[in-house]
Write a structure and sequence with these properties.
homodimer, about 220 residues, mainly alpha, Tetracycline Repressor, domain 2, 10 helices, DNA-binding
DNA sequence: CCTACCGATCGGTAGG
DNA sequence: CCTACCGATCGGTAGG
């Protein structure tokens, strides 16, 4: 609606990207028309195509840019050299903050990644994997048994489930904001991971000779 | 693909609905064409319109039917009269089972509910609320402090986050199936809810006179 | 940067 | 006349 006067090229691109992220997150990528986006930006449709080659380029930029920021966030926190528990706590807090500031891009990343072409989706998935691995590494330090049981990634994904889903239902009203909810998630998670029983998890760990360990079961 | 011979009217409707749920869950409601659906069903497009008034009727039926089954599931489990903890445990296990059997409908419910018209969406949201309330009731029995702190629903939503998100990333491979993952979720949740500190949650609970309780703060 | 369009495909329905 | 459909095409609109 508000037309920014004499904005630079990069500013215009960012403005368009922000409006695109908002519309995509609300209506979904396929259901958003370039006419709607042009109107939201206060630009003509041909002008849009001056800044972005096509509708698809917007989707790629939104998804890739957001996940790249998340991967960088993980690297930065790991570089701080904190022990596992405060590091994981900080990852949770910072991710909720980041999501709160980029809710539209985040919903696009989680819901519209399926509309990416294989090569673009592959790049995004690699970065998503780096993010999850950062959480899983901290988790393995807290519960080393998770490594052999191959539970670090699944349990990390449960954590992401709580956080990601939060942004589908929580409307911050002061009483319960994202920051407070992040603390609850952290309490729940740190309290819960020590209760996960491994007994029922290793599918059929036969009482094999532990003095003769095998790296891989040959078949 | 497989054209069912001499299927009854109701059978045909169910077959179409199942294919619609699958396509909607894969491509999203707006990006799915009636031509694609007709092809998937092995029917002509006019024949589709013999069974359903329009594309939108399919969306309503998928979402409403699924959430109605979930609400009924909650009612059935509550009718068993179990104590809170085993009841909540059973809710978790049964919901994961139900989602696993209705993954397509579930993704449509969670992602395409935004395309419902207001009156239809309102009905769906009422049933979703009944589902969440069933979980929240059990949670309040386990941690009564959650009631006053108004945390029962938010914490229940964290549980739904873990479960709902599970179906976006977990590809059951035998080693880690939905059933095993449900047990992990239950362990994590039951372990975690007792660690959620209320101290940092009640925003500014002034040390007011507890012997003179007020039902509502007048303003 | 706008008006004016295109090839195609959309959801939905005609006649028979 | 009904039902259960078919091949063909409708009026509008999508991305570009």
């Amino acid at each position: 609606m508000a037309r920014t006067r004499s904005a630079g090229y990069d500013d215009q691109r960012e403005m368009i990207l922000a409006h695109a992220a908002e519309l995509f997150s609300q209506r979904g990528y396929p259901a958003t028309s370039m006419n709607q986006l042009a109107e939201a930006c206060g630009l003509s449709k041909p002008t849009l195509y001056h800044y972005y080659r096509d509708k698809y380029a917007l989707l790629v930029q939104i998804a890739e840019g957001h996940v790249a920021r998340l991967a960088e966030l993980v690297r930065g926190i790991e570089a701080e050299g904190l022990p596992a528990e405060p590091r994981l706590h900080r990852l949770i807090i910072r991710f909720v903050e980041e999501y709160a500031d980029a809710q539209h891009a985040h919903r696009v990343l989680t819901e519209d990644v399926r509309f990416l072409e294989p090569e673009d989706r592959a790049r995004v998935l690699v970065m998503e994997r780096q993010v999850v691995d950062g959480f899983a590494r901290a988790l393995v330090e807290l519960r080393p048994e998770f490594h052999e049981a191959q539970l670090a990634t699944p349990v990390s994904m449960l954590l992401f489930g709580m956080i990601n889903w939060m942004f589908t239902w929580l409307k911050p009203d002061g009483r319960l904001g994202y920051d407070r909810m992040a603390l609850i998630v952290a309490d729940l998670f740190f309290g819960g991971i020590h209760r996960i029983a491994l007994t029922s998890l290793t599918p059929v760990p036969p009482p094999q000779d532990l003095q003769n360990p095998q790296e891989e079961t040959p078949r």
